[in-house]
Design brief:
77% of the residues lie in helices and 0% in strands. It contains four helices and no strands. Helix 1 packs antiparallel against helix 2, helix 2 packs antiparallel against helix 3 and helix 3 packs antiparallel against helix 4.
Length: 126
Amino acid sequence: MSRLSKVFLILVSVHSLCVGVGLVTIPLEYFGIFGFESYQGNLFKIQGGVFHIVMCGAYIPAALDPVRNIVLVRFSVFAKFTATLFLLLFVFLEDMVWMVLASGILDFIIGMMLLWFYRKLMVKSS
């Protein structure tokens, strides 16, 4: 796996960490800025934040040694496409929140790049 793909996976983990910390720490009254009107309760925002932080546990080892941790690279691809599907379904079936739409689109782009890196890794290892 190229140095670029390792750097990209590290950036994905930093992104996930920042989103996680943001969800945990940003007070509810600021969520309107991100398109969440009338959002109440801390449980699900904190749960989402902790989930993003936990995902760093998969992204970092995948970035540091993708050959030995190929399963984590594959899991990262799966996670990004699952997030894409969930977020876009939420936007189109439940509530059009601009930040959720933007997150779905970004997760799709990240997933496509991870899939490309994964396929290159598979070709190189065979």
